[in-house]
């Protein structure tokens, strides 16, 4: 992790410009893992140069995978085949990345060798039984520290497929099971309470692995072969989200966001903002690398509070912090329910957002699974991000409209998912400075 970095977000200008935000984090992680296990050489373009995805690349390199970086945002990977990874006695450091650790837990459960997965302070507090319990049902042996990292994954276990209904909607858990399923005897089937992002399924199919999937359901059997495939990573909707809210709330704004990934399991925020009165057009819808992408044109519009439909929550799980900001400056009350998963993200995002919004004068009542937010005017104040990248960027957006500067403590982890946010934001009308 980089050293401590604080920002100040000051009143901004109307936002203008044509931006391309960095590559999708979920797709970048998966492209590395599948390319590593494939036969042949895969070229990834649009790869997210974030700390999370680089940590996954470093882990795979430690496991003997040759990965080249011909240019920024590109990786060329020599796949070692399903059984070609080499064990190491060194701990494998996933940094801040829950996705990296949980997916790798599934992938490593099927190897002949032991591995130890570790993470930073935040990742070390995140629940892992959601993956280790169903993996144990498949025959895996993984030790946790009372359900938390480090994970010690025992090799040499014979895995068998299971039919598993997820207790919580989680693409990470689903993906861990599917990756373990590549090594298992028989069929692995995952059923979800609400459909989650299906990148693992789509990408397995693109790499030639037989898989049946539809929203909320995936089934594969083990012991086939992955064939090297080039991957074009779309721009990350979750990174675009900060600019969607920023341009919506900042009078006089018009922002164009190009080639944004529009997988329907990611676009809940678009629907929520439209329900609040936002003016967001999607143009030039197309397919890129098997994923829907489009250009977004976001214009300022007066927003009003809503009762957020609970069905949208899983499709915007990473965008809720910035929705809290939209709600805090909208007219009237916004009610968010069914979002208890926010409590086990990089920070407890309900508590962190509630404390931060209160610190800048907003009226917010925290509930166990959401919040009631009364729209109004934001004031100057100091916000603690708890090292959570999405909290830091959300309050950078809040600063655009606040009556005085918002100081945001501990912003270095923005680099986990959105390197260059500071410069991109300042280039289109934000006034972000580094605080002393
Ligand atoms: C992700 C799934 C989501 C999301 C995370 C990325 C993925 O987590 O919050 O940022 O790439 O599969 P859950 O699986 O815990 O819902």
Automatic annotation (TrEMBL):
Record's function text: Catalyzes the transfer of the enolpyruvyl moiety of phosphoenolpyruvate (PEP) to the 5-hydroxyl of shikimate-3-phosphate (S3P) to produce enolpyruvyl shikimate-3-phosphate and inorganic phosphate.
GO MF term set: 3-phosphoshikimate 1-carboxyvinyltransferase activity
Family, similarity comment: Belongs to the EPSP synthase family.
Oligomer status and interactors: Monomer.
Protein name per UniProt: 3-phosphoshikimate 1-carboxyvinyltransferase
One GO term describing the cellular component: cytoplasm
Catalysed conversion reaction: 3-phosphoshikimate + phosphoenolpyruvate = 5-O-(1-carboxyvinyl)-3-phosphoshikimate + phosphate
Pathway: Metabolic intermediate biosynthesis; chorismate biosynthesis; chorismate from D-erythrose 4-phosphate and phosphoenolpyruvate: step 6/7
Region Disordered, annotated ranges: 1-24
GO annotation, biological process: amino acid biosynthetic process; aromatic amino acid family biosynthetic process; chorismate biosynthetic process
Organism from which the protein derives: Dyella tabacisoli
């Amino acid at each position: 992790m980089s050293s401590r970095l604080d920002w100040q977000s000051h009143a901004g200008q109307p936002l203008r410009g044509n931006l391309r935000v960095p590559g999708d984090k979920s797709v970048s992680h998966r492209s590395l893992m599948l390319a590593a296990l494939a036969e042949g050489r895969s070229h990834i373009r649009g790869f997210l140069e974030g700390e999370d995805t680089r940590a996954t690349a470093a882990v795979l390199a430690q496991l003997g995978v040759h990965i080249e970086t011909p240019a920024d945002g590109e990786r060329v990977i020599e796949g070692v085949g399903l059984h070609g990874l080499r064990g190491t006695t060194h701990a494998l450091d996933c940094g801040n990345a829950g996705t990296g650790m949980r997916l790798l837990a599934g992938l490593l459960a099927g190897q002949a060798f032991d591995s130890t997965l570790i993470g930073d302070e935040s990742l070390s507090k995140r629940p892992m039984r959601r993956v280790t319990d169903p993996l144990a049902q498949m025959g895996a042996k993984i030790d946790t520290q009372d359900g938390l990292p480090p994970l010690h994954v025992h090799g040499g276990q014979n895995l068998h497929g299971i039919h598993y209904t997820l207790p919580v909607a989680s693409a990470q858990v689903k993906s861990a099971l599917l990756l373990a399923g590549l090594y298992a005897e028989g069929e692995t089937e995952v059923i979800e309470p609400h459909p989650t992002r299906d990148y693992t399924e789509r990408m397995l199919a693109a790499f030639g692995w037989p898989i049946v999937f539809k929203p909320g359901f995936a089934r594969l059997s083990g012991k086939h072969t992955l064939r090297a495939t080039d991957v074009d990573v779309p721009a990350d909707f979750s990174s675009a989200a900060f600019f969607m809210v920023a341009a919506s709330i900042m009078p006089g704004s018009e922002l164009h966001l190009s080639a944004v990934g529009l997988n329907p399991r990611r676009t809940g925020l678009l629907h929520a903002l439209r329900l609040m009165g936002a003016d967001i057009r999607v143009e030039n819808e197309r397919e890129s690398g098997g994923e829907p992408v489009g250009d977004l044109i976001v214009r300022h519009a007066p927003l009003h509070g809503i009762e957020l439909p609970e069905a949208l929550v899983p499709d915007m799980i990473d965008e809720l912090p910035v929705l809290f900001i939209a709600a805090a400056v909208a007219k009237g009350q916004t009610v968010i329910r069914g979002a208890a998963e926010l409590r086990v993200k990089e920070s407890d995002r309900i508590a962190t957002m509630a404390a931060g919004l209160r610190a800048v004068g907003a009226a917010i009542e925290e509930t166990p699974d959401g919040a009631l937010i009364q729209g109004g005017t934001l004031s100057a104040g100091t916000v603690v991000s708890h090292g959570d990248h999405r909290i830091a960027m959300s309050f950078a957006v809040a600063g655009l409209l606040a009556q005085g500067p918002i100081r945001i403590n501990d912003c270095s982890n923005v680099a986990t998912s959105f390197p260059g946010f500071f410069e991109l934001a300042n280039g289109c009308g934000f006034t972000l400075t580094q605080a002393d």
